[in-house]
Design goal:
Residues 1206-1225 are annotated as: Disordered. Its main location: membrane. This protein has 1225 residues and is mainly alpha-helical. It is 57% helix and 6% strand. The strands form two sheets. The chain has a ten-stranded mixed β-sheet with strand order 8-3-4-9-7-6-5-10-11-12, sandwiched between helices. It starts with a helix and ends with a helix.
Length: 1225
């Protein structure tokens, strides 16, 4: 036993590249004793081989040969290392390679199964169908081939099955191969890959088998198939793998039967993946010969189920006849002993049937005994009639369920096994029609195990079916079961790799102790993916004290998880959200979509899934998986966009609340914040989102106010109290703020202003009062008694607290800053101290100092992250990098200009810095509707220009070096070399070509010398005229490539980029507009240099008065529990409306119509089959009635002719009356 396990382990761990181990584990058989065949006149052995083909050892033992009368494989053959294995290429077939292996008939099936799964990479089967048949293809009826094509292969495709036959181009094996081939043309490659046909044939029967022999393996070997349409024993090119069983015989059938049975029995004890049942194995009998009776009997004794195709001929007809007719025949007094030994009457009936079908068999008694044994195990046999009404896959399901009931005597629900098989095969259609049609009372315990199987194996249709039929997800999903689902995540997936990495960190913190995956790692993974968008998930489950270091925290967590964690018995508070996150991490699109449909807060949940998937795609290495994640993320973004669109069309005011409401489900995240983190540009492009941003941008002022009015009011502040600028009326603010959430059927007040700017900015002040609806301090009222601000204060705040006012102020002041900067550089830039700097330059220094203070405030004060996280977040913005560059250059230039020795350097640095500050204007005008998209296009084109410059630099350097070397033989001056190698060829592109210098035929008025001493001293060298023709040619080629090819390539690239980005530039601009609005919403009211006053005010409020900041909660609204519940219910109703509309659209597509039409046609075909069945039964009944009528007529005639009875008239004919009476009955 230990040796066997060692061999299996060796097979499992052998590397794929090294195949030298195969002959050590798999053997072939050779005949070692020549036993003369009495019918061959001594020329053949009973093994089928000729005398000459036997080794000398087999022919030399005359004594053993004389006393042996019957050849036996185990006694008269020996095992040797196999010499035929590897890959098989059918010459001229154009098919993919197949695998083959020659093995002994006594080989352990476990080793073979391991090779098939691990080395040949065959998918784990959900079902194994072993097809047995004996007649040639020409004798197979056409309807049998149709059953194989439309029934068997189709069912195998839907269940992911292996089909095992002999694999030869004869009989049923050839029909199955053709059915697989025909089905491959009608389905996709992915679906076809689920059908794996495997051939198990006797080695001695394979034609041209010597082509496969190669002791070192064949990878691949070419196999030539006979060019004939008739049956032959060649291997069929439609099979995926071949197991060539060698029992030492040549040209003898049946050598593979014992091994095939043992392999099927071994597979039936395996369990596919995380399924709840073993792999079901179904034997299918089509036609067949009398020699197959022994194999059928052995298989039935091993409790293997059989499906017999009635009417296919041969053994199949015999078995169907005895199963259907013998058991219904009247029994004598010994009928109650039917399950024991057969009595003489039963044996006679079976003998009659056997002689009817196999009258020419020699050993009739032995055949009758075998058939009698088959009859005693008839409970494992199911007869399939082609005229039946049930589909073939449904029949297979019932056969396997019936066989499982024979093995398990006690079952709480007789349909549980049938459900497990349907889940394993992923046949939800069978489950709906056969199990969930309303006739079965399902309990929670019956569905629990199958629900886990469906979740782990990604079968969302079954999950939906179980939920619709009474499974309570709140009772099902506990945190312990959720941990079990996370443990089943593939370790090769991106989420599995990340979880294992986090688990490894915890194991390192626990001194290398073995630990299981827990929700602690899941919580950390979600935190890493979501960042600071929301609070960590599942963190409240672990009641562990905070530690000073990460290592101590890991030790405490390991200690906590080793104890009895009671949270594992607790049911999940939000089970659908937990399952949604679990499905998204595995990139299971259909499962995640179903969980999203069942989950609340659909907009935020879809955006959350989009965020997680896009973060995972950045970490994914494989291109296919990365693309799949991106596509699923885009799908969730569109789902969020469409659901929000439905909400916005129904009630705009509620949709605004939806965007900025803090979600308890997602840890105080908001839709806007999640969409920003997920880079959901399509979502931001929605009119509803832009409408809310516009309301925030304009504050309490009317949208569309002319900019000149704002600028004039900023110059003359008292104009704010006039009617120059229109503000929202207090009545409108009262209506918008105090209005309770309307019902889903309220479609009025589209686009009304729900929140004033003050509400968004200072809502945190009094949201704690659950009974009051708050108002701002700028004129709106509440239902309590608020403190009323004077009009002149509220109007002042309404104007200066709006982000648009802050933006205009910053723009105006920035232009003044640039004007002052330019004035200092051009007019008032004095020498170093003590003569300078001037007063204007000191003002410039102070101005830049206030800008630095604002950057520090934006980086370190705003937000709740750590310093490192804030710096990384700050560096992610390109314009922040520009600010750092501009400030750094200014400081460097300031330091240099203070010293006489570096004064000129400092002036140069400050000049360059002025260019950087000026370019910063581009970001300011990104808010403009026309300029914003063009700025995006400009950024894309700059990226394209870098690629152009790369090609230009390569060609420029190549031409410049060659041109300089050809014109001047020796020029040691680095300055002249640099100018002539790079700078001069660059000017050639723009038309500045010094023809006099390049073309020696032209006069060049310049003093030069050929004296090396003078040249080394810096004198201009004279030109070399020997290669001047080549210089001219290179110039022509250079101008051709640069001015025509490269420049036109750049133009074409710019044109493509413009046309591509122009289509989506508006979407990009709307997304960037949000960033700018957030920036100016969080900025102090005053602009530099007066912003220093706001900074002093903030410093006093935060450090002295301890007033918390409300701007760290950007665009966030904390609704009371009652209002939040109403809003969630309203959103759920809008989601249902959206799903209903999408379902209607989907049902209107051509594909869905075709599916419905196909279902109707299938229903009609099923009804036609039922009608045919009824017609067949009526014909049989009519035949019986005719027989009965004839019998009665004969009896009457016999009685009439009797001498004891005298009749005065002839007896009337009763045939017509009897038939009519029977019809009426």
């Amino acid at each position: 036993m230990n040796e066997k396990e060692a061999e299996e382990g060796a097979v499992a761990v052998m590397p794929i590249q090294d195949l030298s181990w195969i002959p050590n584990f798999f053997k072939k058989r050779l005949c070692t004793t020549f036993v003369e065949d009495s019918f061959s006149n001594g020329g053949l052995c009973q093994c089928g081989a000729t005398r000459d083909s036997h080794p000398s050892v087999a022919l030399g033992d005359y004594f053993s040969t004389a006393i042996v009368s019957h050849w036996d494989s185990t006694q008269h053959s020996s095992e040797q290392p196999t010499d035929a294995y590897g890959e098989l290429e059918f010459a001229g077939a154009g098919k993919k390679h197949s695998y083959f292996l020659r093995l002994s008939s006594t080989t352990d099936p476990s080793k073979v199964f391991n090779v098939m799964r691990q080395h040949w990479k065959l998918e784990q089967p959900n079902l194994v169908v072993s097809v047995v048949g004996g007649e040639g293809r020409s004798k197979v009826r056409s309807w049998v081939r149709e059953v194989l094509r439309q029934g068997l292969v189709k069912a195998a495709q839907s269940t992911g099955a292996w089909i095992i036959t002999a694999g030869l181009r004869e009989g049923i094996g050839r029909c199955v191969g053709e059915a697989v081939r025909d089905n491959a043309t009608a389905v996709s490659a992915v679906s076809f890959s689920k059908v794996i046909p495997i051939g198990i044939a006797p080695w001695g029967m394979v034609h041209n088998r010597q082509q496969l022999v190669n002791p070192e393996g064949s990878f691949p070997t070419k196999y030539f198939v006979q060019n004939t349409t008739r049956d032959s024993c060649c291997l069929d090119n439609n099979y995926k793998a071949f197991l060539l069983v060698d029992d030492g015989t040549v040209g003898r059938k049946g050598g593979e039967v014992s091994f095939r049975g043992r392999l099927e029995e071994y597979i039936s004890r395996q369990r596919p993946g995380s399924a709840s049942i073993d792999i079901p194995v179904l034997n299918m009998l089509i036609s067949g010969e009398a020699s197959m009776v022994e194999g059928l009997d052995t298989s039935l004794k091993n409790s293997m189920p059989w499906l017999v195709l009635a009417g296919s001929g041969g053994l199949a007809n015999l078995v169907s006849d005895i199963v259907e007719n013998v058991q219904s025949a009247p029994m004598s007094g010994g009928a109650e002993k039917e399950e024991g030994s057969s009595n003489n009457e039963l044996r006679e009936r079976i003998a009659t049937k056997v002689k009817k079908y196999f009258a020419s068999e020699r050993d009739m008694d032995k055949l009758i005994d075998k058939v009698l044994n088959i009859y005693q195990n008839k409970d494992l046999i199911t007869i399939y009639h082609a005229e039946g009404t049930d589909d073939f896959d449904t029949v297979m399901l019932k056969v396997l369920v019936q066989a499982s009931k024979q093995r398990v005597s006690v079952s709480t629900n007789p349909y549980v096994d049938e459900l497990k098989l349907a889940v394993t095969w992923n046949r939800v259609d069978i489950a709906k029609s056969e199990l969930f049609n309303g006739s079965i009372d399902w309990k929670y315990e019956d569905l629990e195990e199958s629900m886990t199987d469906a979740l782990e194996n990604n079968k969302p249709q079954f999950v939906r079916l179980f939920i619709e039929n009474g499974l309570n997800i709140l009772s099902y999903l506990s945190y312990g079961r959720l941990e079990g689902l996370y443990k089943c995540i593939s370790k090769t997936s991106q989420a599995g790799i990340l979880l294992q990495h986090l688990l490894g960190e915890r194991m390192d913190g626990s001194n290398g102790e073995t630990c299981d995956l827990s929700l602690y790692e899941v919580s950390h993974l979600l935190e890493d993916l979501l960042g600071e968008v929301c609070q960590p998930f599942y963190r409240s489950l672990f009641t562990v004290e905070t530690a000073s270091t990460k290592r101590k925290a890991l030790k405490k967590m390991c200690k906590f998880l080793k104890e009895d964690c009671y949270y594992r018995q607790t049911v999940c508070k939000h089970p659908w959200l937990c399952l949604f996150l679990w499905a998204v991490l595995q990139n299971r699109g259909e499962m995640a979509t179903f969980c999203w449909e069942m989950c609340g807060e659909s907009v935020l949940t879809a955006l959350g899934g989009c965020k997680i998937l896009r973060e995972l795609s950045k970490l994914e290495i494989e291109t296919e998986a990365k693309q799949s994640m991106r596509e699923l993320a885009t799908k969730f973004e569109f789902m969020a966009h469409d659901v929000f669109s439905t909400c916005y069309q129904t009630k705009a005011s509620h949709s605004y609340k939806l965007l900025i409401r803090k979600s308890s489900l997602w840890g105080d995240a908001t839709c806007l914040k999640m969409a920003m983190a997920a880079d959901a540009r399509i979502f931001f492009s929605h009119d509803g989102v832009q409408s809310l941003l516009s309301q925030i941008w304009w504050g309490d002022m009317e949208r569309g106010t002319e900019l000149w009015k704002l600028a004039l009011t900023m110059i003359i502040p008292p104009l704010v109290y006039t009617n120059l600028i229109e503000f929202k009326k207090p009545e409108e603010e009262v209506k918008s703020v105090l209005a309770p959430p309307a019902s889903a059927t309220d479609f009025s007040n589209y686009g009304e202003t729900v929140f004033s700017f003050a509400d968004l900015k200072h809502h945190e002040v009094d949201h704690e009062d659950s009974n009051n609806v708050r108002r701002s301090t700028k004129g709106t009222v509440t239902n309590t008694q608020p403190k009323k601000c004077p009009f002149w204060i509220s109007r002042w705040k309404q104007f200066w607290y709006a982000p648009v006012t802050s933006f205009i102020g910053n723009v105006v002041m920035y232009f003044l800053f640039l004007f002052l900067y330019a004035y200092v550089l051009l007019v008032d830039f004095k020498p170093p101290p003590p003569e300078g700097p001037a007063v204007s330059e000191y003002v410039l220094y102070f101005w830049v100092f206030t800008i630095v203070c604002e950057e520090i405030r934006e980086t370190f004060i705003v937000g709740s992250r750590t310093i490192g996280q804030r710096l990384m977040l700050y560096a992610q913005d390109v314009w922040n990098k520009f600010d750092v560059l501009a400030i750094s250059l200014f400081i460097a230039g300031l330091c240099c200009r203070m010293f006489s020795w570096s004064f000129n350097m400092g002036r140069g640095i400050l000049c360059i810095d002025y260019m950087v500050f000026t370019i910063r204007l581009i970001h300011i005008f990104a808010i403009h509707r026309q300029l914003g998209p063009k700025i995006i296009i400009l950024g894309k084109m700059i990226k394209d220009a870098f690629f152009f410059l790369f090609f230009l630099a390569v060609w420029l350097s190549a031409y410049g070096v060659a041109n300089q070397a050809l014109l001047y033989q020796y020029d040691p001056s680095p300055d002249r070399a640099f100018r002539r190698v790079l700078y001069r060829p660059y000017l050639h592109i723009f038309g500045q070509i010094p023809v006099e210098e390049i073309d020696t035929g032209k006069y060049w008025d310049r003093d030069c010398t050929d004296n090396l001493t003078l040249i080394n001293q810096g004198k201009e060298p004279c030109r070399d005229t020997s290669h001047n023709w080549l210089v001219v040619v290179l110039l022509v080629v250079f101008l051709l490539v640069t001015n025509i090819l490269l420049v036109n390539l750049l133009i074409a690239t710019f044109s493509y980029t413009f046309s591509k980005v122009q289509e989506r530039s508006d979407t990009y601009w709307k997304f960037q507009r949000y960033n700018l609005i957030v920036e100016y919403h969080s900025r102090p009211t005053l602009a530099p240099p007066f912003i220093i006053l706001s900074h002093i005010n903030l410093l006093i409020k935060r450090n002295l008065r301890k007033v918390p900041s409300t701007k760290i909660h950007r665009f966030a609204l904390q609704l009371k529990s009652r209002d939040a519940n109403k809003l969630v219910k309203w959103e759920a109703l809008q989601k249902e409306n959206f799903l209903t509309l999408e379902n209607k659209k989907r049902r209107g597509t051509d594909s869905e119509r075709l599916k419905r039409m196909t279902a109707k046609v299938d229903g009609v075909i099923k009804q036609v089959g039922e009608i045919r069945d009824v017609d067949r039964r009526l014909r049989a009944l009519e035949s019986d009635m005719e027989f009965c009528t004839s019998s009665l007529q004969w009896i009457m005639e016999a009685l009439t002719q009797s001498t004891t009875v005298k009749s005065s008239k002839a007896h009337p004919t009763r045939k017509g009356s009897i038939i009519s009476a029977s019809i009426e009955k």
